[in-house]
Write a structure and sequence with these properties.
The protein contains 20 helices and eight strands. The chain has 439 residues and is α/β, with parallel strands linked by helices. The strands form two sheets. It has a five-stranded parallel sheet, sandwiched between helices. Helix 9 links the parallel strand 6 and strand 7. Bound molecules: adenosine-5'-diphosphate and magnesium ion (MG). The site of magnesium ion (MG) has 4 residues, from helix 6.
C-alpha cells in the first residue's frame, strides 16, 4: 500500500519537476513522500506545515494537472506534516484538489478575511449584496480583474456566506474550464440532457475564470441557455474573468440585453495601504505578529499581485520558523530575494531560449530570415516579449534579431497584442512562455 502510494507520488513529482524551476522543486518537493493510499485519497508527507501551506497555495494548479495527466481522475491529495504528532489529526486537509464535480469552497475565502480597499470596494459591496439576497440583488454578478487580485476569493466568499445562511440551497462552484469540458463531452456523446439537468438544479452557480470560454461561440451559446434558465427561476449566477466581458462577444451581448439586473464590476490592483492591510490580515490569520516596518517593506516591493504578496509572507514565516530567527527587515529581504529572484534576472537569451523550446526552432532561426509560419510567429513573439520584459527600444530589438527594421518590430508587437486578445490558445501559449521566463 505504502509502496503504491509512493509510486503514485513519484509520478506526480516527475510531472511537476519538468515544469517548475529546479530550485523551487528542490525547496518544496524534495523531501516529500507518498505514504498512504486509501479510498482514492493519496496522503503525502511534507517536512513541515509551511511546506503544505506553500504548496497548496502555489502549486495546486500544477498538482491538479499532474493528477489529470496521470489518469487519476478520482484521486485526491491530502497532506500531513512529518513533524506532526501521530495522535493529532493525521490528515491536514488543506484544499481538496481535483473534483470535476464542482470544487469545494475553501473555508478561508470569507468576507471577514477579505480586506476592503479603494481598488475592490465596489466588487466587495456587490458581492456582499448578492450573498445577502441571492437572486435578487444583482444577477448575474460579473467580477473581472487581473490575476491574483481576489476574484476567486470574493466569489467563494459569496458561496461560503450563502451556504452558512441557507443550508438547503444548492451552492455550486466550478471553474469554467470544467464546465466547458463537460459540455464538450456531452456534445460528443450527444447527451446534452444530463448536462442541462445537472446545471439546472443549482440554486447558486459560481463560475470561475470564464475567460476559458472566450472565443468559443458554440459553448457560450449552450451555457447561455443554462444561465437563462437559472435566471428565470430566480437562481443566482456569479461569473469571474480576468478580462472584461466585452471580449466575450456572444455571451456579452446576451448578458447585457437579456439580464437587465446584471452588474459588471472590476477589481483593480491594491494600493500600498491596502497591501499592508492584507499582509497584516494574513499574518493575523497565521497567528503571527508582523512588525509594521516589515509589512511596509514587503508591500512596497510587491505591487501587482496579492498572491505574490502572500507568497512572500509565507516564505518569510517559513524561514523564520525553520531557522528560529525573528521576523525583521533583513529576513524579509531574504524571503523576497528568493521569491522575486534577484540575481536571477530575465535576459534576452533566456527569452529566446524559452521561445525556441516552445516553437521548436533555434535562435538562428529567429535571427534569420526564414518565414515559415511557425518561425515567423516565434520571431514576432520574441519581439513582443523583448519589448515587454526588457523594455528594449524597437531598434535594439531589431538589431538583436538579426537586423530587422523597426517597422517590422512594430508590426510584430501589434500583431501579438492582437492575437493575445483574439486567440485563446495563443494567449495560453503566451502565459506558458511567461511562466517559464519568470521561473
Ligand atoms: P484571482 O482569482 O483574482 O486570481 P484570488 O482570489 O485567487 O485571485 O486571490 C489570490 C490570493 O490573494 C488569495 O489567497 C486571496 O485570499 C488573496 N486576496 C486577494 N484579495 C484579497 C483581499 N482583498 N484581502 C485578503 N486577501 C486577498
Ligand atoms: Mg481565480
Amino acid at each position: 500500500m505504502t509502496e503504491q502510494a509512493n509510486t503514485y507520488w513519484q509520478n506526480i513529482l516527475a510531472y511537476i519537476k519538468d515544469r517548475i524551476h529546479p530550485q523551487s522543486f528542490a525547496t518544496w518537493f524534495n523531501q516529500s513522500k507518498g505514504i498512504e493510499l486509501k479510498d482514492d485519497v493519496l496522503l503525502v508527507e511534507m517536512p513541515t506545515n509551511f511546506h503544505i501551506d506553500w504548496i497548496t497555495m502555489h502549486y495546486s494548479k500544477i498538482l491538479e494537472e499532474a493528477l489529470n495527466s496521470l489518469n487519476g481522475a478520482s484521486l485526491r491529495l491530502s497532506f500531513k506534516a512529518a513533524n506532526q504528532e501521530v495522535n493529532r489529526p493525521v490528515v491536514k486537509k488543506k484544499r481538496i484538489i481535483l473534483s470535476n464535480d464542482g470544487t469545494k469552497l475553501q473555508e478561508r475565502y470569507t468576507f471577514e478575511n477579505f480586506v476592503v480597499g479603494k481598488n475592490n470596494e465596489l466588487a466587495h459591496a456587490a458581492a456582499l449584496a448578492v450573498a445577502e439576497a441571492p437572486g435578487e440583488a444583482y444577477n448575474p454578478l460579473f467580477l473581472y480583474g487581473g490575476v491574483g487580485l481576489g476574484k476567486t476569493h470574493l466569489m467563494q466568499a459569496i458561496g461560503n456566506f450563502i451556504h452558512k445562511q441557507h443550508k438547503n440551497l444548492n451552492v455550486y462552484y466550478t471553474q469554467a474550464e470544467n464546465i466547458m469540458n463537460e459540455l464538450i463531452d456531452a456534445i460528443q456523446k450527444k447527451d446534452q440532457l444530463s448536462f442541462k439537468k445537472k446545471y439546472r438544479n443549482k440554486d447558486i452557480l459560481l463560475l470561475d475564470d470564464i475567460q476559458f470560454i472566450y472565443g468559443k461561440e458554440r459553448l457560450q451559446d449552450e451555457i447561455f441557455h443554462t444561465f437563462d434558465y437559472l435566471y428565470t427561476q430566480g437562481k443566482q449566477i456569479v461569473l469571474t474573468s480576468d478580462r472584461p466581458p466585452k471580449e466575450l462577444s456572444t455571451l456579452e451581448e446576451r448578458l447585457t440585453s437579456r439580464f437587465q439586473g446584471g452588474l459588471v464590476v472590476d477589481i483593480q490592483p491594491p494600493d500600498l495601504e491596502t497591501r499592508i492591510a492584507i499582509l497584516q490580515k494574513k499574518a493575523e490569520l497565521e497567528n503571527v505578529k508582523l512588525p509594521n516596518n516589515v509589512a511596509y517593506y514587503i508591500a512596497s516591493r510587491v505591487k501587482s499581485n496579492i498572491r505574490e504578496l502572500e507568497g512572500c509572507l509565507i516564505r518569510l514565516l517559513a524561514i523564520s520558523s525553520l531557522s528560529g530567527q525573528e521576523i525583521n527587515e533583513a529576513l524579509a529581504e531574504e524571503a523576497l530575494r528568493d521569491l522575486l529572484g534577484n540575481g536571477y534576472k530575465v535576459s534576452k537569451e533566456k527569452i529566446i531560449q524559452v521561445i525556441c523550446n516552445e516553437f521548436g526552432c533555434s535562435p538562428e532561426d529567429l535571427k534569420g530570415a526564414r518565414r515559415t509560419q511557425r518561425i515567423a510567429l516565434g520571431r514576432q513573439t520574441a519581439m513582443y516579449l523583448l519589448r515587454n520584459y526588457l523594455n528594449l527600444s524597437l531598434s535594439e530589438i531589431g538589431a538583436f534579431l538579426g537586423g530587422k527594421d523597426h517597422s517590422t518590430v512594430i508590426h510584430a508587437i501589434e500583431k501579438i497584442d492582437q492575437l493575445k486578445k483574439s486567440d485563446f490558445e495563443f494567449s495560453r501559449l503566451l502565459e506558458r512562455i511567461s511562466a517559464k521566463i519568470n521561473c
